[in-house]
Amino acid sequence: MELRELECFLVLAEELHFGRTGERLYVSQSRVSQLLRSLEGRIGGRLVDRTSRRVALTPLGERFLARLRPAHDALGAAVEDARGAARGVEGVLRIGFQGTADGQVTAAVHTFQDRHPGCTVDMSEIPLADPFGPVRRGGCDAAVVLLPVREPDLALGPVFSRYQQTLAVSVRHPFARQPSLSAEDLAALPLIAIAGTAPAYWREAQAPSRTPGGRPVPPGPSVTTLQEGLALAAADRGGMLLCRNTADYHGRHDLAFVPVTGLPESALGLVRRWATESARVRAFADVLAEVAGGE
């Protein structure tokens, strides 16, 4: 197999346009057609249907794409891993975080850069409503996200920052005067939920629809950012479950943060794609486990 033919097919499968594929590969449109015909000749069947109006993958093309993409990603990761091993941990490591990069994460970044001065760490906030998307799309190499994580294409670890959950409520709400709450008390207050593209199991964990005893929890408004949720909680539109570190960081005069018993602990974890994990990401994961005491 010619690698250039495979790369051409992968780009064409994304663009579904011969001209744009050629632009991305810095070749002519006729060269794209030539590479595709050569690949189809090797396989013995048509991968793409092309008319004057549209370009589409054939069923064989769809099947080939599903098998080729992870193999191509793994090949790229193997090359990157070998490069990293040859020159040490160098380059740029892009770390995403949801809401707040707590002291454990920033301490890990500081320690990592001390140990690997040839590698620069860039940090960026990722959408609360899309915890896994930036890693999958390549916007960051790894991300610190709220658990649970049950994504087969993502590696998880270390897991750290395990704390009792707290409920952010307006200081005007009766719950604000309680020293603590039971999970069953959530049935008396709308919970602010997280909208977006996150899996249903993840959104349910952040804003359960039922108490552990089976009582329904009233649905509150949905938000896409942490600041939206805190603002709605302060306006007494509902309560928002937060990890203890986030509650401490975002302390404000119009909110009370009340511990909640009977719920699973909140926890953070580092996620990255199995297929493209690099030496830089593995080195950072090791430092984060060391600094944060993760598992």
Describe the structure.
The chain has 295 residues and is an alpha/beta fold. The protein has helices spanning 3-15, 18-25, 29-43, 59-87, 103-115, 133-137, 200-206, 226-234, 244-249, 279-292; strands spanning 48-50, 55-57, 91-98, 119-126, 142-146, 154-163, 166-170, 181-182, 191-194, 219-223, 240-242, 255-261, 266-273.
| Main pleated sheet | 5 strands, mixed
The domain tally reads 3
List the strand order in the largest sheet.
4-3-5-13-6
Shape: elongated
Short summary of the structure?
This protein has 295 residues and is α/β, with parallel strands linked by helices. Helix content is 40%, strand content 24%.
List keywords for this structure.
D-Maltodextrin-Binding Protein, domain 2, 13 strands, DNA-binding, 295 residues, LysR_subst-bd, WH_DNA-bd_sf
Helices and strands, with pairings:
Elements (H helix, E strand, L loop, with lengths): L2 H13 L2 H8 L3 H15 L4 E3 L4 E3 L1 H29 L3 E8 L4 H13 L3 E8 L6 H5 L4 E5 L7 E10 L2 E5 L10 E2 L8 E4 L5 H7 L12 E5 L2 H9 L5 E3 L1 H6 L5 E7 L4 E8 L5 H14 L3
Parallel strand pairs: 3-4, 3-5, 8-12, 9-10
Antiparallel strand pairs: 1-2, 5-13, 6-13, 7-11, 7-12
Protein name: LysR family transcriptional regulator
Pfam family, one: HTH_1
InterPro entries: LysR_HTH_N, LysR_subst-bd, WH-like_DNA-bd_sf, WH_DNA-bd_sf
